[in-house]
Amino acid sequence: MKTFQDLGLSEKILTTVANLGYEAPMPIQERVIPFILSEEEDLVGLAQTGTGKTAAFGLPIIQLLDERLHKIQALVLAPTRELCMQIAQDLTNYSQNMANIKVVPVYGGENIVNQIQRLNTPPQMLVATPGRLIDLIERGKIKLEDVRYLVLDEADEMLNMGFEEDLKTILKTVPEDRRTFLFSATMPKTIVSIAEKYMKNYSEIMVGQRNAGAENIEHLYYYIQPSNRYLALKRIVDANPDIYGIVFCRTRRETKEVADELMKDGYDVDALHGDLSQAQRDTVMNKFRLRNLQILVATDVAARGLDVNNLTHVINYGLPEDAEVYTHRSGRTGRAGKKGVSISIVGGKEQNRISEIEKKLGQPFKKELIPTGPEVCKRQLFSMINKMEHVEVNYDEINLLLPQVIKKLEYLDKEELIRRFVSLEFNRFLDYYKDAIDLNSKAPSSKREYKERNDNSDRQSNRGEQRRKNDKGNRVRIKMNFGSKQNASPRAILGIINEVTNSNHIHVGDIEITPKFTYFDLYADQADFLLQAFKNNSNFNLSIMTDEKRTNSSSSWVARRNEKRDFAKKNKRG
Ligand code: AMP
After folding, report:
1. More confident call, 9 vs 393
2. 291: domain range?
3. What is the pTM of this model?
4. Are 386 and 505 in the same domain?
């Protein structure tokens, strides 16, 4: 294995690298650093973000700059404002031992006048989004005639974002004798043609396979009934108490809904989507970077600019249509040599897309079962115990109060003490998962299996029926905001329940319809499932009635029904 000393870096840069705590070069750095320092050619690097790309081009370019010349000598182009800022920050860190080197980012979305001021003394390195750069060139605020190194970072993203013409303009503006280093996670034809047209003899360096998912990412999927998607997500999150990840949704609406639900359920989450202003986006991203949020719910486009390392999980709240989108999403975890997990919650026909993604990734997906309630509780408990073992104890403060506390708890033995401390945090999980249902759905893979499964489920539901018939108690009464004024009928209600729960095994009894509401009985073990299924449904509101209200409502209803019947009878007779 090579060391940074083997790559031809100067003493100053080696000191910087040591200061940053980088122990050994990453694979892309091993190959790109010596190439930039000692070759003359251009470079096309196939590499994803998180592979150590910025240092791979940043360190050698910084070494090659003329510190005393205050002209733009290196230009780095990147697709988004966030990436620009991130790269500029990294390059500033990499040049920390070279006091005269200045790095300036310019990007859209910020007042151009501020940026023009920052350019009064031209920096040696400029990091820019293509659109803003063109704007500044047109205003005569930037001159590129001294550029010797041009980096196109995330070139495929720049094209995806519609910067092709801007890129071509810039490529024609910079001096011909510069060196060009193009980095891209994928190699679509347009990139090849740009490389052919605007770059000289170039070498291709590939880190990992084309479009490959990083090897240290594990790809898991859970197969569920689509109506259980949110419950499954919650259970996955609960089963991974130390999760720090992004949940990807397809649409802004879904993003908002999932984030709102998680917030209501008490998780540290926020949403990132296109409806937010730049300032709101920045706030959310910062909170996430600082780990004030454990989970970010985002659309693909909104998450594009977010560069966060150390994500433990990426969760696909549904499989994306496009295998490439999946690669991008999952590539956000497992960065910088760390392990990562990419989870997909898959329902219905989505399962058919897995093999296509597996082929593109060159890696298999592993099917996992949604953890049961007791499993989640166990994982939570051990995570808590682990945290307790590692918690920082403030001895000075605690010791002052300890004698009093010990005295108060004297009568409890060690086991009982543990039980009680643990229960403080743990009871809510036990409570929530007390009647948790199995969320796993079996995907039929052949006609035979399909038939067997249906036969089985019929048998199972018959058994369930039998059990329910024997079990006369243990019912709850549900109130639903749907009444005769909205044409409620027992048939309509059953139809709605079946549709929303995507099941026809909910057993409803004693239906009572009033002008505004409907009341019905339900076996307690199905109530949680029903309420969860309706949680994401904005048309209906369901709640469990307390015993007291239940008696009142039933009796008044029975009374009203009798009154009505008597009235009808009387009228007939009369
Ligand atoms: P990048 O692909 O440039 O976004 O880098 C991904 C992350 O890896 C960044 O947080 C870098 O600070 C970090 N990094 C880069 N090179 C090394 C290295 N040789 N050792 C450890 N971490 C590194």
Report:
1. 9
2. 217-374
3. 0.48
4. no
